[in-house]
Amino acid sequence: METLEDQPIHNLLKEEEIPQNKITVVGVDAVGTAFAISILMKDLAGVLALVDVMKDKLKGEMMDLQHGSLFLRTSKVVSGKDYIFGRQYNEESWVGAPNFHHD
């Protein structure tokens, strides 16, 4: 009689790929934050970039989204204070931990 150790293990679920695109949300007020949460919940992006001129609010919202996204598939939540950051962000400009704040 075969035991569990003798039986091969089969993966019944096919792994889904994490999206490799980036979405930038400009403005982290109530509407921008709602968009960001929706993007995270629906796994629409591999990178979510937040842009706002108010650095303190931006950092707080980014940290909240990072903490909440630990159980989701979005690989990075990043932020910056100017639009150029969101537009030019790419893997080569990313340094440090998977989630970081860029001034």
UniProtKB/TrEMBL annotation:
Question: Keywords for this entry?
Answer: Cytoplasm
Gene Ontology CC annotation, any one:
cytoplasm
Q: Where in the cell is it found?
A: Cytoplasm
Major place of residence:
cytoplasm
Cytoplasm is among the record's keywords: yes
Q: Key word Cytoplasm present in the record?
A: yes
Q: Which intervals hold domain Lactate/malate dehydrogenase N-terminal?
A: 22-83
| A single MF term (Gene Ontology) | L-lactate dehydrogenase (NAD+) activity
**Among the record's GO biological process terms, what is one?**
lactate metabolic process
Name the domain of life: Eukaryota
**Would you tell me the protein name for this molecule?**
L-lactate dehydrogenase A chain
User: What is the native source organism of this protein?
Assistant: Theropithecus gelada (Gelada baboon)
